[in-house]
Design a protein that fits this description.
- The chain is globular.
- It contains three helices and three strands; from the N terminus they run αβααββ.
- Strand 2 and strand 3 form a beta hairpin.
- The longest helix is centred in the first third of the chain and has 14 residues.
- It has a single domain, classed as Vaccinia Virus protein VP39 (Rossmann fold).
- It has 87 residues and is α+β, with helices and mostly antiparallel strands.
- Strands 1-3-2 form a three-stranded antiparallel beta sheet.
Length: 87
């Protein structure tokens, strides 16, 4: 997914999800050195890695009341993160 496609998707979700609705996004963690060579380059469809702070900002700008990332380990080591966005 390109950055433009991600932005368009978040804006679309902001217009379609009702108040109280939830969006869950799971993606590679660009803060983890292990995720880049291990997962990112292994899949030729990967185009961009999205920083959790950037995704949180985009969801909040699209009208979500919260958008918080969580990791299954320390942020610099976890290979993926989940972002929970609440409208």
């Amino acid at each position: 997914m390109t950055s433009q496609q991600a932005l368009e998707l978040v804006v679309l979700l902001g217009s379609k999800i009702r108040e109280g609705g939830v969006v869950v996004v799971e993606t590679l963690n660009p803060r983890s050195l292990g995720s880049v060579p291990h997962d990112y380059f292994r899949d030729p469809s990967h185009r961009n890695m999205f920083d959790p702070d950037l995704l949180s900002f985009l969801f909040k700008e699209a009208g979500f009341s919260s958008a918080e990332p969580s990791w299954d380990g320390p942020p610099g080591e976890a290979q993926r993160y989940t972002l929970l966005a609440v409208r």
